[in-house]
Amino acid sequence: MTDSSTMLSTVQAIAAALKDKPGALLPILHGVQDALGYIPSDSVPVIAKALNLSRAEVHGVISFYHYFRETPPGKQTIHLCRAESCQSMGSKQLEGHVKAKLGIDYHETTADGAFSLEPVYCLGNCACSPALQIGADIYGRVSPELFDELIANTEAAA
Amino acid sequence: MSKTIYVPCDSSAVSLGADRVAKAIQAEAEKRGIDIQLIRNGSRGMFWLEPLVEVATDKGRIAYGPVQTADVASLFDADFTNGGDHALSLGLTEEFDYLKKQQRLTFARIGITDPVSLDDYLANDGYRGLDNALAMSPADVVKHVTDSGLRGRGGAAFPTGIKWNTVLNTPSEQKYIICNADEGDSGTFSDRMVMEGDPFVLIEGMTIAGLAVGATQAYIYLRVEYPHALVALNAAIDKATAAGYLGDNILGSGKAFHLEVRLGAGAYICGEETSLMESLEGKRGLVRFKPPLPAISGLFGKPTVVNNVISLASVPIILDKGGEYYRDFGMGRSRGTLPIQLAGNIKHGGLVELAFGLTLRELLYDFGGGSATGRPIKAVQVGGPLGAYLPESQFDTPLDYEAFAANWTVLGHGGVVVFDDTADLAAMARYSMEFCALESCGKCTPCRIGSTRGMELMDDIIEGRDLDKNVPLLRSLCDTLLNGSLCALGGMTPYPVLSALNHFPQDFGIDHQADIA
Ligand SMILES: Cc1cc2nc3c(=O)[nH]c(=O)nc-3n(C[C@H](O)[C@H](O)[C@H](O)COP(=O)(O)O)c2cc1C
Ligand code: SF4
Ligand code: FES
């Protein structure tokens, strides 16, 4: 992956480009996570300096928001919806299947680094529950069989 | 002559394969040498039929669905580009009962037009509200909104005109408009459908809001879970800017209005308006004490209008046709229409925009067709994760803010989540506590600590431990949450929990009503 100095220059470039926006911290954190897949702890001092904040403040914001992550994700992140509408259509069973199939729990990454699993609370796809997202792609009415197919296709494409 | 084919770009349609179907249709048309124009429209909101493909014919648009890639070759064999008959034929889209029975004001264009075509928008009554607003005084614009009776569709149902009037009358060199597009409630997707299916109507509504109160800068706070909406909004903003509908001098009026989309980061609490403003300012989303009201001291301490997507997207038609036109729909103090979202275990899930007043039962059976599984409907959660569960005996409640409040239930953002008789309402009550614990901003103790305690209590109750002690404890904890929370996350988590307990005591291991006192 990226070595530490290119990582830092990426972060610096993102922070420099966005720091003058009002309320720039979230846009910068999104920029960093989009570019690197996560927000490395080494990037915190760079971001803090650009915005004239303390490291603790930046860290506090990162940790407040579920979406920001401080560890590298797998190649694909699966966001599985846990909210009520999906529960009404069997998302609990799907969740059990997904965890068993991947051999991981929420907030974990498979040993081969292929998939990370994260819970999500509604994807706005509640008329087609249960729903999940693999990378940027959204799926509805996901049965365990369909999930296996999607995973097989993702792995084949990798 | 080229044939026009529509395949929705709505993310629910995409989740069922619409992108693949669109590609397959394009490829098959090329292979057969048929000249087609493929338009990615928004969704009509009939999700059991998605991907719903339509073809423009002399008689009107003819629909086919649900279409999968494997059906595409046979559709061409059946000459569907000329409306030919096929096993998936559904007839004229306009003749569908589900659509004909609706009153689509806010959703008038959605599913019909190309969402990011400004020409389509203008050809279908777009920007007529702004034209009128530009010719009026700010106070008159606000008056139309007040007269319309529009109440905020984000949950709290506060009169929009009153909010705008406060901002109008608070002098400041800088004011802001914020569109709350955090749509975190389970069972809701109307905001998403507007942003993906008709982004210009939101942009127009926000521009009118800016003119009305004297704000020149606006933000759409969009949840990160909506990447398709982000693309559509940014495309529409670029086009509106290029055509002079946004920028330093809107349509030569000398008035400025700038609009930027900002992304949330997966925190439900940031849908609460003061938490949202903290987040926009680049901070943790801690809820603020009120007063001061955001209308007086909001974003960066300036007077700020915060409105839901649907509230703002309803403004253009109000300014186009007048406040009275809108007010003539609805019942009691609930004026206009509500875009209802039918979700969960329902056969015909989708979007139903109607004047207030229909009963839940009509919605569930006449529109929804009963449960998806074909089993009896046991409970319905209306109004998102902080909304109560309604049992069958309450299905005759009309959709009206006051009628719902009288039942200790809420309409909220109009999400309706259906559960069949296999649902376990004690498990749902536990989930409500868990959700509150996960999403609590941590500012007040009842919510921060009480939700975790509530989860533990629910575990005990589900295990059947000491019910005579634990059920009263759960009630008293709910009391503390109701009375001791700063915002509705802690303050309304008792709605789903207590409604589940009161209406479905057997799920909590309680046999007799008497035991639940
Ligand atoms: C926990 C919580 C979450 C909320 N989430 C949303 C939301 O996702 N979208 C929304 O428009 N309003 C949400 N609200 C309501 C807002 O605080 C606010 O009332 C609304 O944005 C005002 O706009 P309106 O008057 O147009 O409804 C939420 C409130 C609370 C307490
Ligand atoms: S009730 Fe919960 S979410 Fe609301 S302010 Fe208090 S701690 Fe924060
Ligand atoms: S509840 Fe799962 S997509 Fe909305």
Task: Provide a brief overview of the structure.
Chain A is α+β, with helices and mostly antiparallel strands. Chain A has seven helices and five strands; from the N terminus they run ααααβααββββα.
Jot down its keywords.
heterodimer; A: 158 residues; alpha+beta; 48% helix; B: 517 residues; alpha/beta; Glutaredoxin; Rossmann fold; Ubiquitin-like (UB roll); 4 domains; 5-stranded mixed β-sheet; 16 strands; 40% helix; globular; binds flavin mononucleotide; binds FE2/S2 (inorganic) cluster
The CATH class name of the largest domain in chain A reads Alpha Beta
User: Which hetero compounds are present in the coordinates?
Assistant: flavin mononucleotide, iron/sulfur cluster, FE2/S2 (inorganic) cluster
Work out the helix count of chain A: 7
> What is the number of helical segments of chain B per DSSP (H or I, 4+ residues)?
22
Percent helix of chain B: 40-55%
> What is the ordering of alpha helices and beta strands of chain A?
HHHHEHHEEEEH
Label the CATH architecture of the largest domain in chain A.
Answer: 3-Layer(aba) Sandwich
User: Which class of secondary structure composition applies to the elements of chain A?
Assistant: alpha+beta
CATH architecture of the largest domain in chain B: 3-Layer(aba) Sandwich
CATH class of the largest domain in chain B: Alpha Beta
Rg of chain B (C-alpha, Å) = 24 Å
Tally the beta strands of chain B.
16
